[in-house]
Amino acid sequence: MNITNKKLKGYLSATFLGVSFALGTGCATANDAPVQSTTPVLVNSPAQEQKAPAKPTPEEIINSMTPEELSAAMLDEFKNNRMSQARYLVNLMEGIRALHVDEAKTQDAEKMISAAINGVLKELDPHSAYLTAKEFKSFQESMSGAFVGVGVMLDRSSGKLVVIEPIEGGPAEKAGFKADDVITHIDGKPVSEMTEEEALNTLRGEEGTTATVTIERPNVAKPFPISVTRGVVESKPVRSRMIGNDIAYVQLATFAHQGSASELRKHITDLQNKNPGMNSVILDLRYNGGGYVHMATQIIDDLLDSKDVTVSMRGRNPKDTQIARATPGDITNGKRIIILMNEGSASASELTAGALQDHKRAIVLGTQSFGKGTVQQVMPLPMGDALKITTGGYYSPLGRSIQNNGITPDILYVAPVDPKAPKITREADMANTLENKALVQDTTQIKSTCAPIENPTPVSVPKELQRPRGGKADFELICAVETLRNQSQYTVSGPYVAPAKPAIAAPRP
After folding, report:
1. What is the pTM (predicted TM-score) of this model?
2. Based on the structure, what is the number of domains in the chain?
């Protein structure tokens, strides 16, 4: 290590003041035992007793070292002493604060510490994170079902921040947001420069404050701004309705709500009681990014009439393995179930679909899901901040791991090809994603396909088969309905043909 700046060298070498280390020359610090004299003393010498040489101070030891000696000592101490590692980080940050040309940027200690911790966590996996006190408060609000913000459901699987739909009755709906709007800037800052959590936190804020959101809208020539006043948003985890008198459609928006399982149970029970001809359930988990694992296990339990395993969670220590089992009683009384999934279905959504698929209790229809098979624990810290850290992975009843793979649908929805559509990002595309440690090989195969019938003119479908807002036909939902009714009015089904593998050229002789 070539240390030429004396000030920076001082900050780094200060790490080792008061720490015992040796270079093979007997050097020691002030915290060690006194150095014994090596100067010979004559026996019976009339000369005055010789004194031990003065012990060098830590500063003198460090200043006497060559850069190479200091580097070797620091490296040895850094590898073997965790306190030295902590001191090194602290003193390195002090060096940055003292030397960086932009002094104002270095004075926000909270921001620098947050960035340092998140830098470490991002090297471990994409889902561990340090939450400042403000971020942790926002996180807790979002998990409670009520929060202050603009009120939009968002999807970033394409790399863009796309509005799935504005939350009913929320500020965004009142301000004129629509499904498929693409948010490009928030208060003038490009969304492309933000992480997903940063974008969400920026949309949230104090009640009554205004956010200026720039959006791109399909069939509108130029991006335009919308001003929206933040307010209290009451998120509803479940929405439901009947399609005809035979199929219950139930959309579960999130598992990150303490009422997710109880609300789902209430909606299905109410629909059954009011509709004696009901014989099937479509459970819509599209764009459901997950939430509490225990909400997922409760919902799986409600849809299984057995005592079988629903999920297992395994960490670094085999002794910490947790296995959840169902209890007798199926709230649908054995009715047929189709689960809708897509690339935005993640975590607890995949856990639910995988368990019901393993038990052959439900048919999964849609596209390959996101592939997040890890569990995070949120640990509150003393200053109101928190650490969200990955502590294990979860596995389906058969031992499949969803990590990086996702859930393979039984019926693949084949959407019309859009050459302008951006590439979809899944777990496997993220940096530092953890490897799949499945207990068994996932042999799930797509059994058939479903696609809209090609029609040169726009198809007009009943309102019950349209997306909630926007008036567009929901062809994945239509595929599920026509599968249950064995119809093909708006869609066409067929056998799945796997894509041909690219030919490998024979080696030249």
Report:
1. 0.79
2. 3
